[in-house]
């Protein structure tokens, strides 16, 4: 039976099985003509047919465990000597659209390894000669920018380190972590010289004002705190947020202390 170029699959001529296997079970599916031209059809070029109906296998069940239900795309003129599985046979057609470039055309210059946990923070020296990294392994590592070699390791935090900042006016580096501690490191002595206490939970971020000796910190207690670096006194406690403060910024061109907070 044929209707507008659509032939019943029952009218497709069957070929004998070379191995003597049983013929495929009858189906009420339709064989749809493929996109080939009429010339190709006259030459016997194979067409793709969409078969929807009972399983083409004479025995067994399909992948879903339900007998007699399958959907497959098979060549309409192919031989029935094989029992096709119920998995779809799909012809991959290349896309006409150009492949998008998800990454910038930069090359990896160097891979620096040494931490035993996730690297949570990084900060560069203003002179661009070294940089520091803070990790979930509770250590701070100082690296040489030119060679990528490890210069030394600082320990003192008892939980993972979330934030680092290097002072532009002093030889100080500041660190903060999940242990609620904010530490000031003297890079000439490589040791902690000050600690700032006040946060009720982990400290996630910190920033230094470039012209004033003020340190800004924010954390899980939803409070941004402003500290005097030298006296270790808390100057302000900016509350009112409903969630974690994960980033703080200051404007370097203003002598006052405007804050930019990014909430999680």
UniProtKB/TrEMBL annotation:
InterPro entries attached to this UniProt entry: Prp46/PLRG1-like, WD40/YVTN_repeat-like_dom_sf, WD40_PAC1, WD40_repeat_CS, WD40_repeat_dom_sf, WD40_rpt
Name of this protein: Uncharacterized protein
Keyword Repeat: yes
Residue ranges of the region described as Disordered: 1-77
Family the UniProt entry places it in: Belongs to the WD repeat PRL1/PRL2 family.
Pfam families: WD40
Record's keyword terms, sorted: Repeat, WD repeat
UniProt biased composition (Polar residues): 44-59
GO biological process, one term: mRNA splicing, via spliceosome
Renumbered ranges of WD repeats: 112-153, 154-195, 196-237
Cellular component per GO, a single term: catalytic step 2 spliceosome
